Amino acid sequence: MADKTNDHGVGAYLEPRFDTGSEGGPLKIASVKASRRQFIKGVIASGAAVSGAGVLFGGLSGCAPDRAGVGGVERMLMLRVNGAMRTVDVLPNETLAMTLRYKLNLTGTKLGCDRGECGACTVLVDDVATYSCSTLTHSVRDKAITTIEGLESADGQLHPVQQAMIDELGPQCGFCTPGQVMSAVALLKVNPRPTRDEARLALSGNLCRCGAYDHYLNSVMRAAGTA
Amino acid sequence: MSKDMMPAFELYQPDTVDGAIELLSDAGEGGWALAGGNDSLDWFKDRIKRPSVVVDLAGLDELKGIREASDGGVEIGALTTLTAVETSPLITERYGVLAAAARRVASPQIRNSGTIGGNLCQDARCWYYRYGLDCYRAGGNSCYADSPAGQNREHCLWGADRCVAVSPSDTAPAMVVLDARMVIRNASGEREVPAEQFFIGPDVDIERMTALERGDVLTSIRIPAEWSGATFYFEKVADRNTWDFPLVNVAAAMFVQGGNIERIRMAAGAVQAVPRRLSVVEQVVTGQPKNEATAALAGQSAVRGATPLNFNHFKIPLLQNLVTRAIRDA
């Protein structure tokens, strides 16, 4: 249904008046008027139904808007994820971690604290390590997103960091591993031959409750120069 | 753990600063300016702040980047990331104290998306306030931290006025030391506020930490040439080296000639609601030899008048030691 508003064109600010009686139900656009605010990228109601196979903590409640809203961003996005363009319906208040896990089924990205304090949700945004739990998906609409699923090559060969994690028995329980790998990959992109201290600093935004930090560092040092 | 998303809001992504200001003005009380989002989204997820309109500033390219100013100083766009600040050659070569401060903020990922403007405009970290209690800062009429059972290990040594929260920023003391100017824009124009006046305590307004008012946007920070290339010192002590806010941090800029401290500016964070300019230290050490004795005197004078709460006495010797080291080791 978001496609309908696409017809009005992204880039124009529209001031629709909605029949907002039914939450999550169909919305009727009573009048649509293009206005002076050309700087706003688009508009669509945030009261429309949720799309995507959303399996959330405690059910779908999280991804369903709790009230109908009017105005703001175009909800249908083209996101560049792992080199592919993916069309996805994204709520204004949706974090990148939510979109990746529950709309795009990229569940390799983990949610630990959901507060930017553990690093399990680390992904690359334009090759920069970023907490996807603390990033609105709409804020990265024009960026290239890389998740753990996007690291292996087309022929199925693991990324050198992934292979090194196996060779060095990097993870213990494994929950924080995707985040640790993404931080290591981001480091090696800008610093292919880091010192152990540089690697330690680069991975310092990723907690490991098993305390496998040294094993992770061994893995990064093994992968250094081959990534 | 069961949890869901933050409550709904309308999201706008303006391309121009004027557009952002207009949107924020229109939104009034329900408006919220979003920069890096590291703090904002936590507020929303916790349901403590519930804006109806969020204005995402991420698309304002005019507020990004670091450039040389005509007076020989630099101007930093408010949306420049902390990572960009800490790695910028202009900053590392001329204003090392700011680079050092930015490098100690939170974690690498937070520095990658967190902005210098966001770091300077941070709200108080007092956990009673963050928990959503009806404390003075939240518009209520109690302080839970400064009560007989209140946990106030992280709270202030100076400037308590109903609220005892501290300035949590690492870059703020560096900005005070560099005599930076905050450039603020709103619908009626632009104004420049010195860093020292930008940060405000509960005695001025208990519900905000900065001079920013509704409809204001911090657009850039101008650092004058005056302290360019000075001798700098920055040190932060926190419980963990990553993520944690400072228990105390100190920043200093000084010019040393023939072994004597000719000029100096010094500030400490996390001891007051504003970055505390250490004027007494500056007066005591100016013109003095930069040696152990002067450093010790500086440390002693830094803590004069400190009024600890029940659980933060340790901050007094901590501040004293950091100031001593700043003079001795800078």
Ordered list of secondary-structure elements with their pairings:
The complex is a heterodimer of chains A (227) and B (330).
Chain A: H1 2-6, E1 76-81, E2 84-89, H2 96-103, E3 122-125, E4 128-131, E5 144-146, H3 160-167, H4 177-190, H5 196-202, H6 213-223
Parallel strand pairs in A: 1-5
Antiparallel strand pairs in A: 1-2, 3-4, 3-5
Helix pairs in contact in A: 3-6
Chain B: E1 10-12, H1 17-27, E2 31-34, H2 40-45, E3 53-56, E4 66-68, E5 74-77, H3 82-87, H4 89-94, H5 96-103, H6 108-113, H7 116-120, H8 127-130, H9 171-177, E6 181-186, E7 189-194, H10 195-198, E8 217-223, E9 231-237, E10 248-257, E11 260-269, E12 276-277, H11 279-285, H12 292-302, H13 315-329
Parallel strand pairs in B: 1-3, 2-3
Antiparallel strand pairs in B: 4-5, 5-8, 6-7, 6-8, 9-10, 10-11, 11-12
Helix pairs in contact in B: 11-12, 12-13
How would you portray this structure in words?
The complex is a heterodimer of chains A (227) and B (330). By secondary structure, chain A is of the alpha+beta class. Chain A has a domain at 160-223: DNA polymerase, domain 1. Chain A is built from six helices and five strands, in the order αββαβββαααα. Chain A has helices at residues 2-6, 96-103, 160-167, 177-190, 196-202, 213-223; strands at 76-81, 84-89, 122-125, 128-131, 144-146. In chain A, helix 3 crosses helix 6 (213-223). Chain A is globular and about 45 Å long. Chain B has 330 residues and is an alpha+beta fold. Among the domains of chain B are: 10-58, Uridine Diphospho-n-acetylenolpyruvylglucosamine Reductase, domain 2 (2-Layer Sandwich), CATH 3.30.43; 230-329, 2-Layer Sandwich (Enolase-like, domain 1), CATH 3.30.390. In chain B, 29% of the residues lie in helices and 20% in strands. Chain B has 13 helices and twelve strands. In chain B, strands 4-5-8-6-7 form a five-stranded antiparallel β-sheet. Chains A and B meet through strand 4 of A and strand 1, helix 1, helix 2, strand 3 and helix 6 of B.
